[in-house]
Amino acid sequence: MIQQIHYFVIAPPLVLALAAGLVLLLDAFLPAGRRTMAGLGLVSLAGVFIALGFVVAQAAQGGRTLATFCVPDALARATGGSGPAGSQEGAGGTGLCSFVADRFTLIFAGLVLVAAVVVVLMSMTELAGGGIPVGEWYFLLLCTLVGAVTLPASRDLIMLVVALELVSLPVFALTALKRYDGRSSEAAIKLFLVSVVSTAIMLFGVSLLYGVAGSVHLSRIGAVLSGASPPPATFAPTLEAAHGLPAVVTVGVVLVAAGFGFKIAAVPFHAWAPDVYQGAPIPVAALLSVISKAAGFAGLILLLVTALAGQAATWAPIIAILAALTMTAGNLLAMRQRSAVRLLAWSSVAQSGYILAPIAVASRPGASGDALLSGAVGASVAYLVIYAAMNLGAFAVVMTVSRTATRNELDDYQGLAFRSPMAGLALAFCLICLAGLPPGLAGLFAKIVVFRELVDGGSGWLAVVMAVNTVIGLYYYVVWAGRIFTPTPPVTAARRPFPATWVAAGLAVALAVVFSVAPQLVLDLATAPG
Amino acid sequence: MMGWLPVALLAVPLLGALLLLISPALLRPVLRGYGLVFSGVTLALAVTLAATFDYTQAARPQLTVDQPWIPGLGLRFHLGVDGISLPLVVLTALLTFLCFVYLSWGDARAPGQLLTPATGRPRALVFTLLVLEVGMIGTFLALDLLLFFVFFEVVLIPMYFLIAIWGGRGRRSAAIKFILYTLLGSVVMLLGLLLIWAQTGTLDIVALSQAHGAGMSRGVQVLAFAAVGIGLAVKTPMWPLHTWLPDAHTEAPTVGSVLLAGVLLKMGTYGFARIAIPVLPEGAVVIAPWLGALAVVGIVYGSLACLAQRDLKRMIAYSSVGHMGFVLLGFATLTTVGVNGALFANVAHGLITGLLFFLAGAIKERYGTADMPSLGGGMLATLPHLGAVLTFAAIASLGIPGLAGFWGEMLALLGAFQPAEVLPRELFLVFMAIGGLGAVLTAAYFLVMLSRVTHGLPARPALSLTATHSAPGGAGAGPEETGSGAAESRPEALAAGAAESEPEGGRRPAEVTETGSPAPKAGAMRDIRGYELVAWVPLIVLILLFGLWPKLLLSLTTPAVQTLLGVLS
């Protein structure tokens, strides 16, 4: 049997993979030098842009959901009775596809790729400092992007796990690329251990789910576990004997949730974040806080809302409590930080909590396709998109400051608005956006969307916890923003221009400003019509 | 229709702020005129708004604009004015303009005028004030729950920086306290607003007010009223939630205090009249006795706290707690009379306390301290005009008939005498009695203040110097001697120098030596200056006008209040 591959559908990850290979080849055969360094950056950038072009082209196809790597009709009927009716209409064939490019996928892919542009631009500045092998850096970066773009499109457990590993593995190496740097190595080891453990946990959970449902396809798992589809013959006795689902499903759900909890740095798996963010080069920290986190959320949402929708009673309270703990822990710890990157690390943990919160009320059975973006999940995605813009803006400015202030503590930002007005204003805007106050309307509306889902979904207590957290968060953001505008005795530090980082910061801040004026753009994207 | 007017009211200050951001260098030389022009145009627009307003239809929103902004959130850009918001819009535009007048009139080299490069950051100050004006006016114009919330929040950051940059010595902690406290209130209010939205499916304040709570069960209404009420009460501020206010007022620069007391506090009380009471009438009935109780506690507490204050600015700040207590008591009665009184007291408090803070700022700039014992009395002899205006403002604030402060308190107490039928009358009679006692205490502390500051013998230099040493605000004793010693030779310069360095606080160690040192001779100080007179006279005139002719304002609010109370009245 010949598997038909729809190459247009898989074009974005394919382009990125080819670019990664090309970068590695060019690095091997071109003479090392400043021009090669810039050239490799530009090749990576071009790869990202082409991939982005394909994503836009797919989006321009309109409402048609593209899919590939599908199980052929005949095979599906032979193995497992009828395919889950109506769960994947428009996907072609039976609907059991491993790679689907629907709105959900495209939003995440677009988010990842735009963030990637910013990260690549930041990398150019980072690499210009020397000491980091350029070819390897871009190769690893592009590999991560392949994973991050593939992950939201994955609709079966194996793809999901492979894509997630593809996101994680290169990041260890990226973190450690700053050779002979103690902090960096420590960060890489920490990240590696935590990630491997989380992968193991998740794989265990995944195998349990597969064992019970007898399928790796998310929609099929969902159908089996919610009783819409008959379970595979082998497992039927177990399932029926218990009058419902065996406890092993609950275990599987918890383990899988825990595995993803590591990726998004949710409590109680959050402790790695600040050390790793601080030890890693700043572009990698930005990558971890936006791209890797977005991928983690995409996977979590896919699993919970598609495959485990019927188990919402099990995971919704867990997610709610995790969200509450995550935002509280992140905010409380962020208040005590003196280092800018550590503060951003904790703040991004807290923001994870905000993004996680609406998922707790997203228990809609039978979600598929665009329903993935209805209501609560849409709120999460909208928050994630806005968060990505503002957080990247903050990281980009922090990066420019880190060039002159090696320790990069909050004190180094004193009077930034006078030394470098644009950087000061941009950072202040991003921080106030993150705090969720006007003029950072993007952050405010993002929070309002989340609050609205929580109040609407009946999770009043979570809304109150989040409200209190918003206030705690405001404290450190505003204190930092205040420092920026506090005059200092003029120091004439020798400053070099970092054009690439400026473009990166400009791009991120411009997006944040656009989202502030017209948040409808994000809400339209993230919320399915109707 | 003149629907563009409300939009222009927001667009003009916003444009002013944005231009300042875009072309800083170009505007630097004309900065003083710049703020004056933009706030002046805004005031002119507000006056035009008042002129085009149809006074026969004061109950319904006029000059409305209704455009979808964020359909995904159901948020519409819905603006309009009615009898309740019109006076507040004009008051806001007026106070902002007067603040700019105060800052930039004349040669702008006087102590209180922060727009000189020497005192730093004139551009940032103009920018901050213009953004603040956008938020304040927007709050009063918004007719959409979320839009109201957005504007309600817009003021936080500019006010934070106003206190944190141009404030007094304890400015940083005061600013943080202010913003955290009010944000906590705001997010609780946001939850309440979203609860209303979740239950009714609309954010349109006009539609919600007309529905009078239809579609929401009693329990939901009580919960929503409590949540929205807490948010508004923090801003107002109501008694147990007021603790941010004295610090913020004391540390804020003069213009900050004026706008904080004159406008920002009104945003809280306005919210009760605009959202809480009309949208959630059943919730209002349940919570009204509590609101009334906290209000009278606030009245008495505020007055007693005032009696204990040494610092003039702090005393005026606490007096705001008391006056806002009267406003809340008026709302709690849920009667036309009471709510009318509340709205009147609102505007009157904006005018009177605005003036009082201008005066306190002027005194602080002249004496280098607002500590009443250090001021040493005898102001009527040394600075007769300033003393006279202070006396006038204090008497207006304590509620002498014939001045604006009287009618609001009187009507609020009258409302408490005969509250809405659904409310327990005995309880409100008690409230009225306590409120009356509070009014007496108000008179007491203002008279004590006057006897300390304006009357008595002018203090001798030696006396006032010793007093400053014991004062909490006094800078180190050693350098102070040299500071005043140097000042003996240039008495004029000291008054200016001391006040100029005051907003800089600890940032310029070289100048701190002069900070807080009292002027050695009263003769060194000048009485009311031109820029002060220009800024104060409109307030004085309006206080007299509303005091003698309260109908001017009451005729505007009465129909609107009758509509908003709807079934309750």
Question: What can you see in these coordinates?
Answer:
Chain A is mostly helical. Chain A has one domain. Chain A has 21 helices and two strands. In chain A, strands 1-2 form a two-stranded antiparallel ribbon. Chain B has a domain of 325 residues. A two-stranded antiparallel ribbon of chain B has the order 1-2. In chain B, helix 13 packs antiparallel against helix 14 and helix 15 packs across helix 26. At the A-B interface, helix 18, helix 19 and helix 21 of A face helix 5, helix 6, helix 7 and helix 8 of B. Chain B: It is found in: Endomembrane system; Membrane.
For this structure, the quaternary state is heterodimer
Q: Name the beta content range of chain A.
A: under 5%
The secondary-structure class of chain A comes to mainly alpha
Element order of chain B: H for helix, E for strand: HHHEEHHHHHHHHHHHHHHHHHHHHHHH
**Anisotropy-based shape of chain B:** globular
Average pLDDT rating of chain A: 82
Short structural summary:
By secondary structure, chain A is an all-alpha fold. Chain A contains 21 helices and two strands. Chain A has one domain.
Features:
heterodimer, A: 530 residues, mainly alpha, two-stranded antiparallel ribbon, 2 strands, B: 569 residues
Question: How are the secondary structure elements laid out?
Answer:
The complex is a heterodimer of chains A (530) and B (569).
Chain A: H1 11-29, H2 34-60, E1 66-70, H3 73-80, E2 97-101, H4 103-128, H5 134-150, H6 157-176, H7 182-213, H8 218-225, H9 236-241, H10 247-263, H11 272-279, H12 282-307, H13 312-335, H14 340-359, H15 375-404, H16 416-419, H17 421-435, H18 441-456, H19 460-484, H20 499-517, H21 520-526
Antiparallel strand pairs in A: 1-2
Helix pairs in contact in A: 1-2, 1-5, 2-4, 2-5, 4-5, 4-12, 4-15, 4-20, 5-6, 5-12, 6-7, 6-12, 7-8, 7-10, 7-11, 8-12, 10-12, 10-13, 11-12, 11-14, 12-14, 12-15, 13-14, 13-19, 14-15, 14-18, 14-19, 15-17, 15-18, 15-20, 15-21, 17-18, 17-19, 17-20, 18-20
Chain B: H1 4-22, H2 24-27, H3 31-52, E1 62-70, E2 75-81, H4 85-104, H5 122-141, H6 145-154, H7 156-166, H8 171-200, H9 205-211, H10 218-235, H11 244-251, H12 254-279, H13 281-307, H14 312-333, H15 336-367, H16 372-375, H17 379-382, H18 384-397, H19 404-417, H20 425-453, H21 461-470, H22 477-489, H23 491-501, H24 509-512, H25 530-548, H26 551-565
Helix pairs in contact in B: 1-3, 1-5, 3-4, 3-5, 4-5, 4-12, 4-15, 4-25, 5-6, 5-7, 6-8, 7-8, 8-10, 8-11, 9-12, 10-12, 10-13, 11-12, 11-14, 12-14, 12-15, 12-26, 13-14, 13-20, 14-15, 14-19, 14-20, 15-18, 15-19, 15-23, 15-25, 15-26, 18-20, 19-20, 19-25, 22-23
